[in-house]
Specification:
The structure is a homodimer. By secondary structure, chain A is an alpha/beta fold. Chain A has helices spanning 20-33, 45-54, 79-85, 90-99, 112-123, 158-176, 197-207, 235-260, 264-272, 274-283, 310-325, 328-339; strands at residues 6-11, 37-43, 64-68, 105-108, 133-138, 145-148, 182-186, 213-218, 230-232, 292-295, 300-303. Helices cover 45% and strands 16% of the residues of chain A. Chain A is globular and about 60 Å long.
């Protein structure tokens, strides 16, 4: 494989539609991104090769390398247990490729906990950081925003929240193209002094970080309406916010659909404006972003939504490439060092 | 005032549309509920009397009593500070009426923190409980469900979460008419062992409570789709879930509206099926429930949404009446005593 190419390891067996969505994604990526990337495909070699041929992709394409990984981690498996018991699973093998210096990063649409656990155990943390966070881009009335952490670290110290603020800020600059993202600390009210103990202490830490446009506390009402670009919270709260929002969108769509079916005229009207709904769906489609980076670890990893199809996977591959190209991890280490967060304590 | 009537103190100056929404609400309640309730109206006496006359209500109606409360607490005031500095505010005076035995409960659509703080300080906790929780009824695909605590107690011990499970269960029986509500503990995944430290410990406590249909952990994806009737969480998480959900509904409506306006046909279609949207809005309207009870304190208090108009206020008055009529507080004390939660530790 050429040395100049950015090489991305793909977890071929992770996700609800694996491996077909991953194969579709790799095929799309080969066409869309030309020579920009090389791909290490971690999965059962024969099955992957067969799938590539079915998609009219030559498995001996110089940009591709198939790496044998006969095991896979299911979406509902216990992450740490699975990593320990399945050292040859596609996600673990993909992480190993980065550790061995053969790839620059990993894309996985599989079990989030397994990806987080494997990255944390295999790669370890960047200097100055103690726990990773997932930065998820979510749609909003006035454009996308970043939720950080959306599920990697459940129990957070105030310092971890401060680190999430630094990493979320850098990621919003890169992914959303903002020059001074507005960073807010998620709390149960906007006034200073609101929040649980961790949030109250994190407030005073983040407040003292130079170079971050800190709004102070933000509350649930501030999300989705364009008041804040980076929302900082622990992975427990972030996971709940993310999943609740996903489900509420679905439930509301379901209730509207059900309601519309009650009368003939409503049904006709809904048919007429179907395109408008499709437009909103497109605007809020997670697969356009390509997944959420796991930040803080020594390596680049993007975690896609389990339900991604090929297009989402190709976008996820590009997202890993962008993290590598923009040297995100070096910038994180620089920022943490420069802000000397540890000395704030 | 007749002794047989259930007497409800109304915070006439709390809420975005006070006092006019409260005056409208009292006028509606007088008509709808006949002789069932008596009303202690806490507010500036002259202003309240004038408002009643404007609504063709006789201020000397035997069901009414006007109680002077010249001060009011604003929606954005610091709760504890406001309570201390404004002992003659309408919310504090309303709470005092219950403490003095002159009313059985309070309705307020004002500053939630002030209502919680005043109830906690003036009424104190029921025997066996240490912190109050707010039980908010939210709409879902398959009917309403209860979020407990939605914002009263930010830092919770596992035991407080267990108490919320007991109170949420009893409230769902009363308010939703369920014989065995399914109670879930909100976490970042459904497997046992998921959750932050408090949640993990609360799991093992709630699991051992007899008489509660405990589902174990529920996650964000389980809310709004009818999988669980009572969702237990601390007030920090609950407040964020509640406000995020409110805002996301608004933002999605806004995005649909904006999208629909882009093309003539879409606009026409939306006009045709407008009724279907109104139907969904009605199904998800908080004012039908009349507000959320503050449970755990020695007295009955229902907190309405700040934006309630008269109809919501009248429903809130009825909700207080129902708490009193069904002896909710006695049943909470009985349950906490019966389950001997303290001995579980």
């Amino acid at each position: 494989m050429s040395e100049s190419r950015v090489v991305i390891a793909v977890d071929m067996m992770g996700g609800d539609h694996a491996p077909s969505a991953m194969l579709d994604g790799v095929a799309e990526a080969l066409g869309r991104f030309g020579d920009a990337y090389g791909y290490l495909l971690a999965g059962p070699r024969e099955e992957v090769a067969r799938g590539l041929v079915e998609r009219k992709v030559d498995p001996s394409d110089p940009r591709l390398e198939l790496v044998e990984a006969p095991q896979s981690v299911g979406m509902d498996e216990h992450p740490v247990k699975a990593i320990r018991e399945k050292p040859r699973s596609s996600i673990v093998v993909a992480m190993d490729m980065v550790k061995a210096g053969r790839a620059g990063g990993v894309f996985s649409a599989g079990n989030t906990g397994a990806a987080v656990g494997a990255a944390f155990l295999k790669w370890r943390m960047l200097e100055g950081l103690s726990r990773p966070g997932i930065a998820t881009v979510l749609p909003g009335e006035k454009g996308p925003w970043v939720l950080m952490d959306s599920g990697a670290t459940v129990d957070c110290t105030p310092m971890m929240l401060a680190h999430f603020a630094v990493m979320g800020d850098l990621y919003a600059r890169q992914a959303l193209g903002l020059s001074a993202p507005r960073v807010g600390l998620l709390s149960n009210g906007t006034e200073e002094g609101k929040g649980n103990r961790q949030v109250q202490e994190a407030y005073s830490l983040i407040q003292r970080i130079p170079g971050i446009h800190f709004l102070g506390n933000v509350e649930g009402h501030d999300l989705f309406r364009g008041k804040v670009d980076v929302v900082v919270c622990d992975g427990f709260v972030g996971n709940i916010v993310l999943k609740t929002s996903e489900q509420l969108s679905k439930s509301l769509s379901g209730m509207i659909r059900e309601s519309v079916m009650q009368r003939f005229f409503w049904k006709m009207g809904a048919l007429l404006c179907k395109g408008a709904f499709r437009e909103v769906k497109r605007r809020t489609d997670a697969s356009e972003v390509g997944g959420a980076p796991l930040l803080g670890v020594k390596g680049c990893c993007v975690i896609g939504h389990g339900n991604f199809q090929g297009h989402g996977v190709a976008n996820g591959i590009r997202a890993v490439g962008e993290l590598i190209r923009t040297r995100m991890n070096e910038r994180i280490v620089e920022a943490v060092h420069q802000y000397a967060l540890d000395s704030l304590n």
